[in-house]
DNA sequence: CTAGGGTTAG
């Protein structure tokens, strides 16, 4: 009879562990009650963890509250439950509650609560826990000690971390790895390697940690050396090296490694895609995504979709972007916030503002980036007024703007010619939100003044602002000088631009356009000579255009492209449309 | 009931 009961208990526990939905869990829960297990602490703990895994912390808490006198292990289970759902404040509050009941924490309590402190940077609480650990004699527990090492090294308190590490009575491979990782996050790769060589035991996690450390300081040689020497590599080892090459700009090494990999998971594919994305190879991002779908072994995840959409955005590939949108829906990412943000950006950058707004409106969960993407998208595509309206909507929704939000707002004002509003938003940014203006914000103000034709005020602003002007700012001014045919400030801007980049012929072309516009042909000729002296020719203008769902590069006066007829037909159509809307394109006065 | 390792967008 007793063994029968035991068997039933085991059966229920395995059922609880296999619960995939809350509905399923409810069914198993009724089994628990029907078989008289609702007062078994052991079983109730398993139910609580199952709730936690299904993100149902409220249910878990209810069950916990029904336990008459919860033991330490019950409390620990509840900590874990909140920890699993990233409710770190809740973990700490619950721990204090437990202490107020005079329940003594054990060696299982400290690691979880400390981890929560690490996650939310609660160093003060972490230090208090450290005191408690020492007082209650858990300093010798290797799980507790390791987590304390992690706590201090996470806040760059490497000496404190090392002291705890040294005082640990026994240091296993996990403790060594955490300590090595601590030195790596302090950028002390030498100390990290010294510990690595000193460690009595090496395993695959420790080696991967060390390899990642080398890549983070850009030492690809030592990273690769260590990787080649590893006797047992796991998939993560390969992915670490793949990502290392990707982040250090070696696309070729990244490609070569990818082809050599014995197996690939989603991180491998994302590594290669990220390698292309970080190094501006956007067309390859798209072909790799296609290849991944064709091989059909792993499904794209959130990161894949975000990177691919961002590549579409950079290419202005609307048709492809729409197709990725369909892929995202098909893979269950319609409600995903980050994917939503990438979709907004893709649609906005491709000029499909209605679609961008549709996606934005359909998002149940929006974050700061969603608002910023929408506001900046509107502002830079001629919808400055909508951008400003979106900003008030954002404030009403209780979202706090950051410095990027204000770049959108200020550039919106610049495009609309709202000079006074621009200045009052700048003031609000400083006074109401305590955001210190960056060079980009000042750049927006210069643009704001210059576009409004207030060139003297723009130059005066540049002189008086607290930051040193950058090349972007002078180029902005130069562009407006052409519009308003102001030679004086154009010459000043060129002079400054040449200091930044003496070899860039584009700047000379800009000024020569000003001379040409107002008929100062002698100055134009003098400038031609100066340009030639730089020894550089202006590269032909290059554009990206989507033809039959393929993004192609083509240069100005390009005759080589197989689809050139179609491209020029589309351009004719575009020119006609833009004339219709009152925009009269002019032929540029080019040098040579 | 506990501790160490990855990608993504403005």
Automatic annotation (TrEMBL):
One of its GO terms (molecular function) is RNA binding. It holds the Pfam family PPR_2. Keywords: Repeat. SUPFAM superfamilies: TPR-like. It comes from the Eukaryota. PPR repeats lie at residues 203-233, 234-268, 336-366, 367-401. One of its GO terms (biological process) is RNA modification. InterPro entries: E_motif, PPR_At4g14850-like_plant, PPR_rpt, TPR-like_helical_dom_sf. This is Uncharacterized protein. It comes from Linum tenue. The lineage of its organism: Eukaryota, Viridiplantae, Streptophyta, Embryophyta, Tracheophyta.
């Amino acid at each position: 009879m007793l063994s029968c009961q035991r068997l039933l208990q085991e059966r229920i526990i395995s059922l609880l562990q296999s619960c995939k939905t809350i509905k399923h869990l409810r069914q198993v829960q009724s089994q628990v009650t029907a078989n008289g297990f609702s007062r078994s602490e052991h079983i109730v703990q398993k139910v609580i963890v199952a709730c936690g895994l299904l993100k149902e912390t409220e249910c878990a808490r209810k069950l916990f509250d029904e336990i008459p006198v919860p033991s330490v292990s019950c409390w620990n289970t509840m900590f874990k439950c909140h920890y699993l759902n990233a409710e770190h404040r809740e973990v700490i509050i619950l721990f204090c509650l437990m202490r107020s009941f005079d329940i003594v924490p054990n060696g299982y309590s400290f690691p979880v609560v400390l981890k929560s402190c690490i996650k939310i940077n609660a160093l003060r609480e972490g230090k208090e826990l450290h005191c408690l650990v020492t007082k209650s004699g858990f300093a010798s527990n290797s799980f507790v000690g390791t987590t304390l090492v992690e706590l201090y090294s996470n806040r760059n308190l490497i000496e404190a971390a090392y002291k705890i590490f040294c005082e640990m009575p026994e240091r296993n491979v996990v403790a060594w790895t955490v300590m090595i990782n601590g030195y790596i996050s302090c950028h002390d790769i030498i100390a990290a390697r010294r510990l690595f060589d000193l460690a009595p035991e090496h395993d695959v996690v420790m080696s991967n940690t060390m390899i990642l450390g080398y890549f983070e300081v850009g030492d690809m040689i030592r990273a690769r050396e260590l990787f080649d020497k590893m006797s047992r590599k796991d998939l993560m080892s390969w992915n670490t090296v793949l990502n290392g090459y990707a982040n250090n700009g070696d696309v070729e090494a990244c490609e070569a490694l990818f082809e050599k990999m014995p197996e690939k998971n989603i991180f491998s594919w994302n590594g290669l895609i990220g390698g292309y994305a970080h190094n501006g190879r956007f067309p390859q991002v798209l072909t790799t995504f296609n290849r991944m779908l064709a091989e059909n072994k792993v499904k794209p995840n959130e990161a894949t979709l975000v990177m691919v959409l961002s590549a579409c955005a950079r290419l202005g590939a609307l048709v492809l972007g729409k197709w990725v949108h369909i892929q995202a829906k098909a893979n269950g990412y319609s409600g995903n916030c980050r994917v939503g943000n990438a979709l907004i950006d893709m649609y906005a950058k491709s000029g499909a503002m209605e679609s961008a707004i549709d996606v934005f409106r359909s998002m149940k969960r929006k974050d700061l980036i969603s608002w910023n993407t929408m506001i900046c998208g509107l502002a830079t595509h001629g919808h400055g007024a909508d951008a400003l309206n979106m900003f008030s909507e954002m404030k009403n929704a209780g979202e706090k703007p950051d410095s990027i939000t204000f770049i959108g707002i200020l550039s919106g004002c610049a495009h609309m010619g709202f000079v006074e509003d621009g200045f009052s938003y700048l003031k609000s940014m400083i006074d109401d939100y305590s955001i210190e203006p960056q060079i980009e914000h000042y750049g927006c103000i210069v643009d704001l003044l210059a576009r409004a034709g207030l060139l003297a005020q723009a130059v005066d602003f540049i002189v008086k602002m607290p930051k040193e002007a950058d090349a972007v700012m002078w180029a902005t001014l130069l562009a407006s000088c052409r519009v308003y045919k102001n030679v004086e400030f154009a010459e000043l801007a060129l002079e400054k631009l040449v200091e930044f980049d003496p070899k860039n012929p584009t700047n000379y072309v800009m000024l020569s356009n000003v001379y040409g516009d107002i008929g100062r042909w002698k100055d134009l000729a003098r400038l031609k000579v100066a340009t030639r002296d730089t020894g550089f020719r202006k590269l032909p203008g290059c554009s990206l255009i989507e033809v039959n769902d393929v993004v192609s590069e083509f240069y100005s006066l390009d005759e080589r492209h197989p689809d050139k007829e179609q491209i020029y037909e589309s351009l004719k159509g575009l020119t006609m449309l833009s004339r219709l809307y009152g925009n009269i394109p002019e032929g540029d006065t080019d040098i040579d």
